[in-house]
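Field log, afternoon session.

UNIT: design team B
ACTIVITY: writing a sequence onto a fixed backbone
BACKBONE:
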């Protein structure tokens, strides 16, 4: 353990620090000994130190703390930014703040003759002081022995540096990933008689990398095992369960502790929880985690949002376990304030829905129009990987097509009713609220909904029994070009939605950085995402970066593909959405004038005129 004892000059840091070091059998380090001569001279002349003077001094202390690993440090660390330097790379360090009034310390200072700091400087120390919101806050208005006793009693008993609640599939994988990076974890799973008993302990026994972990099914004991400020990662079901766990945790935690929600929570819930916990002095980080079970184990893409200072305390953990981008940097970045982390994860899933649906439609045309077998389709899709189209979803799709059960392809044994857990529907609600037509995402969502009406579809098919229209085979070249263009539309729409949310909610999101952390670990990682890092530097209109000729070729391909779908009755919602969105963007065939006229006709809603678009609104008496 590293213990930083802080307070203004004269609060007794050195005396208390030395006694604590004795009790703990740790070496003691006095911050004053780390000042360069220039600082000491300045203080002797009665001049207060500025931030620049303190920077090197704090870094030297931080360096020493990293070196010794165990020790008690006495250091004024009056501002939060100073404490951040002290704690950099040692988030398990603990803070003790010796709290005393100006009058009390002033009277003590006046009684001291041996100190190099003139008592008059105490005023500037109090002006600089930003009281910490975490760690132990100890009143110095008592005997030194009592102060030490109080600190020893209240020092976090635990040495476990990071806690994780919820050992489902994702929780277990994240725990193994964290432990594999050398972090000492406390793991908690609820107790449910006969179904969830000693889950954490049994799990720890199963894997060598979990040797230093401690398992709990008593929440209080779990919390007590953690060093402060506590960092607790929730990997529980989104929604009510998350609220219940937070409510249980709240009374057990201390000011400054940090709860991190890694589930697919709605961003508005995250915002609400954040405000509620802030009122209790607790920090809350809502983070998207993408990559499924394997990603969680080997390196997910992580999208944390919330209070930036709190993020900095958990950054070493999240950044260590994240996937690496092409340059070797972690696919984890501070997203922004409030619920922004969960918002971008939600849109990530929306983009994922449309990417998945596009591939399902490609499959449908190759299977039902071109008459290829799953194996042949798999080979075709695999061949696309060399054309700048490679992506995780393309890869798993060509792999899953090969899976057999006996003689049958497994895909033929899977009922065509798509499930969903809600993020696609939240994305669709958000786009409606923010006024952004991310039409491919909503089409993909509604395709899943239509698929779920299986019996209804069967009833219609039986009643009308329409003969299937023969259609010439679709060109695989067209199919690939159409798919490529539709993907670009999907990504453009998704990033436009994020961009608009960033503006309306004042999140100041960094879109190229977001694309960077989506280049690996997450479900929508792809070669295209790599390209988008650069393209996003000049905005979200990716389509404008296409050469006219390239666009024309791809547009013709998309047209041919969607016509084939319409003629044969193969439903192609995302390709059609992309086609229609492009038609609306690229061609000038006005229809909104009719809408405006209708609105004005029945409701006197008024309209603008083409000859004066910014001018006054007009109303016509139509009959
Ligand atoms: C990810 C996935 C993951 C999960 C979603 C999908 O990024 O790792 O998106 O979050 O697969 O829950 O949800 P649906 O069940 O709605 O498809």
């Amino acid at each position: 353990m590293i213990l930083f004892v802080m307070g203004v000059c004269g609060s007794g840091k050195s005396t208390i620090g030395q006694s604590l070091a004795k009790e703990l059998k740790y070496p003691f380090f006095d911050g004053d000994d780390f000042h360069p001569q220039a600082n000491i001279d300045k203080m002797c002349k009665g001049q207060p130190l500025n931030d620049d003077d303190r920077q090197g001094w704090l870094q030297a202390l931080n360096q020493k703390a990293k070196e010794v690993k165990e020790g008690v440090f006495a250091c004024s660390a009056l501002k939060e930014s100073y404490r951040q330097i002290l704690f950099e790379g040692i988030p398990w360090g603990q803070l003790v703040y010796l709290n005393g009034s100006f009058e009390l310390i002033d009277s003590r200072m006046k009684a001291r003759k041996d100190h190099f700091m003139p008592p008059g400087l105490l005023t500037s120390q109090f002006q600089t002081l930003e009281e910490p919101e975490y760690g132990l806050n100890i009143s110095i208005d008592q005997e030194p022995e009592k102060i030490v006793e109080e600190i020893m009693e209240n020092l976090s008993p635990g040495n476990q540096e990071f806690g994780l609640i919820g050992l489902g599939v994702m929780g277990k994988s994240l725990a193994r990933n964290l432990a594999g990076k050398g972090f000492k974890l406390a793991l908690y799973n609820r107790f449910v008689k006969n179904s969830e008993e000693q889950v954490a302990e049994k799990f720890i026994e199963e894997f060598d990398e979990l040797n230093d972990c401690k398992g709990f099914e008593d929440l209080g004991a779990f919390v007590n095992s953690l060093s402060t400020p506590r960092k607790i990662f929730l990997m529980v079901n989104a929604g009510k369960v998350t609220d219940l766990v937070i409510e249980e945790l709240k009374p057990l935690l201390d000011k400054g502790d940090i709860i991190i929600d890694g589930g697919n929570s709605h961003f508005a819930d995250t915002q609400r929880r954040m405000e509620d916990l802030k009122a209790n002095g607790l920090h809350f980080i809502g983070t998207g985690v993408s990559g499924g079970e394997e990603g969680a184990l080997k390196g997910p893409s992580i999208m944390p949002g919330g209070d930036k200072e709190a993020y900095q305390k958990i950054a070493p953990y999240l950044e260590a376990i994240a996937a690496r981008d092409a340059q070797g940097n972690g696919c984890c970045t501070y997203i922004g304030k409030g619920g922004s982390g969960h918002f971008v994860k939600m849109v990530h899933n929306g983009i994922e829905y449309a990417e998945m649906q596009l591939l399902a439609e490609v499959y449908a045309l190759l299977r039902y129009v071109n008459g290829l077998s799953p194996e042949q389709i798999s080979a075709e899709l695999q061949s696309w990987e060399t054309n700048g189209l490679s992506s995780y979803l393309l890869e798993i799709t060509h792999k899953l097509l090969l899976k057999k059960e006996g003689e049958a392809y497994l895909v033929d044994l899977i009922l065509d009713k798509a499930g969903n857990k809600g993020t696609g529907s939240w994305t669709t609600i958000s786009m409606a609220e923010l006024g952004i037509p991310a039409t491919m995402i909503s089409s993909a969502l509604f395709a899943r909904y239509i698929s779920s009406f299986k019996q209804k579809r069967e009833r219609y098919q039986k009643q009308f029994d329409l003969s299937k229209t023969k259609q010439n085979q679709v060109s695989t070249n067209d199919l690939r070009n159409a798919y490529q263009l539709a993907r670009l539309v999907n990504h453009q729409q998704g990033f436009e939605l994020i961009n608009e949310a960033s503006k309306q909610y004042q999140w100041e999101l960094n879109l190229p950085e977001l694309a960077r952390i989506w280049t690996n670990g997450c479900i929508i990682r792809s070669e295209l995402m790599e390209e988008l890092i650069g393209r996003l530097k000049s905005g979200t209109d990716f389509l404008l970066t296409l050469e006219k000729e390239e666009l024309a070729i791809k547009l013709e391909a998309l047209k041919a593909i969607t016509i084939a779908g319409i003629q044969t009755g193969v439903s192609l919602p995302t390709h059609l959405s992309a086609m229609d969105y492009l038609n609306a963007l690229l061609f000038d065939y006005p229809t909104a004038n009719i809408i405006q006229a209708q609105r004005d006709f029945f409701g006197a809603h008024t309209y603008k005129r083409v000859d004066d678009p910014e001018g006054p609104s007009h109303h016509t008496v139509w009959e």
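LOG NOTE: The chain has a mean pLDDT of 94.
NEXT ACTIVITY: expression trials, pending approval
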